[in-house]
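User: Some background: our group keeps a shared notebook of sequences we're curious about, and every so often someone picks one and asks for a predicted structure to add to the entry. Today it's my turn. The entry only has the sequence so far, pasted here. Could you supply the structure so I can complete it?
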Amino acid sequence: MSLRLSTVILPVRPWHDGGRDQWERAERLGFHTAYTYDHLTWRTFRDGPWFGAVPTLTAAAAVTERLRLGTLVTSPNFRHPVTLAKDLMSLDDISGGRITLGIGAGGNGFDATALGQEEWSPRERADRFAEFVPLLDRLLTESAVTHRGTFYSAEEARNVPGCVQRPRLPFAVAATGPRGVKLAAKHGQAWVTAGDPKVFEGTPEQSLEALRGQVGKLEKALAEAGRESGSIERVLLTGFTPERGTMLESVDAFVDFAGRHRELGFTELVVHAPIPDSDFAADEAVFERIATEALAQLGA
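Assistant: Of course. Here's the predicted structure to add to the notebook entry:
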């Protein structure tokens, strides 16, 4: 099975002080896609620079030509389907059809209360996500949409001329729970996981077993949705599994990690671009060697 290698660039560097260089480098190194997180801020980066995903991707689209671009992931925490659809249609136009929307239900981080709302319960997040994704699908495929839902409404919302990619730009749906996985099976062109938080501090074998179980849930949901197993990409956001501290230490270490996860059926691995003095610190030279040499060693 073929394997793609992508990267995620956290939006922590000013555009004219290293930010632009990272996106240009991602294209030069041959990554399939360069994603960014769509948060208002995130974890230990809360008190430092953090830039918006949509403007960042717009700028990245202007300085790259072949590299696919996307979010990993956008969530309903501070997004509304109507305004998000307009931004996505515009991004797809500016990039010449190179945008992928990574989308998830969101969590309890800073985004959850930044607009002054109370944190949503896990059930409400799932309920909102179940309404958000189908409505966004409609908004990006229909020229005019009216919808009156429990959480989101649209009144003659128009997105003309629509996406460059038809019928719309691809959705990469991040989900591990049963309802989210069903949404991925129905609306996704890709499914995304970062692994199982219960074994982030466990062993590599425990992580692989948990991922095997997640893949099994996806397969079941695809069958129930009447879709072929191979009709959806399987994306692993690395950097959270038990191997996070070792997999970027050498090309061989990464090749070993990638090979074991390819055997589970993953078609795309996403590695974080190094950030000094953070959980994503890594040797820049090794990172670049992984980008340019690892897939060849795998025969991918």
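Suggested note for the entry: Residues 204-224 form the longest helix (21 residues). The longest strand covers residues 68-74.
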